[in-house]
Specification:
202 residues, two-stranded antiparallel sheet, 12% strand
C-alpha cells in the first residue's frame, strides 16, 4: 500500500483589495480589519515560532497583469462574466498583460522585492500554469491542487470551478512525495515545483 502524506495548505487572510473586490496579483495590498497575519498566527498557535521563514517571489500570487487594481464586478460588466471567469480561474489562459503605462506597473516593477531578478524574470501577466506555489493566494492554491491531483494531463475546465475559501484544507497524497531522511529529528517531505521558471525543491 502506498504511503499517505498529508499536505495542509492555508489561504492568507483577507486583504483590503479582497474586501473591495479588486484584482490584486503582485500588488502588496494591506490586510483588511478582518484579515490576519496568517503565518504568525499559525506558528504561534502551534507553538512553532522557532521555525525559520523563507521568503521568495516564487510564492507570489499569480500576476494579474492589466487587470491589477480593477474592480472584478465592473470588469465583468465590461468584458462579460464568462471572459473574466476564464481570466480568473482557467489553468492556462493568462489575463491581459500589464503595460508600462499601467497605474501599478512602477510600484510593482520597482519594488525592492524584485531588485535581484534577472532580465525577463519579472512577468507582465501569468496564468495558473505559470505560477504553481504552495502557500498564499486562492489562485495559487487552485494551481497546485490541480498538479497534486495529477490532472494536468486531462481537461482543465474543472479548475475554473475550484473555489478555495480562506483557511486550511488538506489533501491526501498517496505515494507522490516520499519523505526525505530526518533532519534534526524532524521528517521532511520533498516537493519539486512543476513549472520550470519557478523550479526549486520546496
Amino acid at each position: 500500500m502506498a504511503a499517505v502524506h498529508r499536505l495542509v495548505i492555508v489561504r492568507h487572510g483577507e486583504s483590503a483589495w479582497n474586501q473591495e473586490n479588486h484584482f490584486c496579483g503582485w500588488f502588496d495590498a494591506d490586510l483588511s480589519e478582518k484579515g490576519m497575519e496568517t503565518l504568525w498566527t499559525i506558528m504561534e498557535d502551534t507553538d512553532q515560532m522557532w521555525l525559520p521563514v523563507h521568503r521568495t517571489w516564487r510564492l507570489n500570487e499569480r500576476h494579474y497583469g492589466g487587470l491589477t487594481g480593477l474592480n472584478k464586478a465592473e470588469t465583468a460588466e465590461k468584458h462579460g462574466e464568462e471572459q473574466v471567469k476564464i481570466w480568473r480561474r482557467s489553468f492556462d489562459t493568462p489575463p491581459p498583460p500589464m503595460d508600462k503605462e499601467h497605474a501599478y506597473n512602477k510600484i510593482i516593477s520597482e519594488s525592492r522585492r524584485y531588485k535581484n531578478l534577472k532580465p525577463g524574470e519579472l512577468p507582465t501577466c501569468e496564468s495558473l500554469k505559470d505560477t504553481i506555489a504552495l502557500p498564499a493566494h486562492g489562485n495559487s492554491l487552485r494551481g497546485i491542487v490541480k498538479h497534486l491531483e495529477d490532472s494536468h494531463t486531462g481537461p482543465t475546465a474543472h479548475v475554473v470551478q475550484n473555489e478555495r475559501g480562506t483557511g486550511p484544507f488538506a489533501d491526501s497524497l498517496r505515494g507522490m512525495a516520499p519523505p526525505l531522511p530526518s533532519i534534526n529529528g524532524r521528517n521532511k517531505t520533498a516537493w519539486t515545483c512543476l513549472v520550470s521558471d519557478r523550479a526549486s525543491d520546496i
